[in-house]
From TrEMBL:
Protein known as: MSHA biogenesis protein MshK
Leader sequence residues: 1-22
Keywords, sorted A to Z: Signal
Amino acid sequence: MDKKMTWMAALLLSVCAFGAHAAQDPTAPLGWVASKAKTSQAKARLPQLQSIICDGKQCSVILSGQVVSLGERVNGYTLTNVSESSVTLSRSGKKWHLALFAENIRTN
């Protein structure tokens, strides 16, 4: 019974050791370990301004399909200012001004 346990333990250790070597580059020098790649932060996509709705004193905005009020967040951006035709978003100390309509409209 002890021989079976010894063989099972040896087999298990060899499988584990083989799996660890298989994960490394077989052409790499002995003892070389790959450096861990730096993980880059996913950049939050700037929301798209779709509509501005004002009813008296309070305005709501539709950004990328979500209704957002002043001070609320969407995709990590905070709505900081609303006018009749544009909004201001802020994130990490930076500001973005989004216009409802394009300012340079060409007519043929």
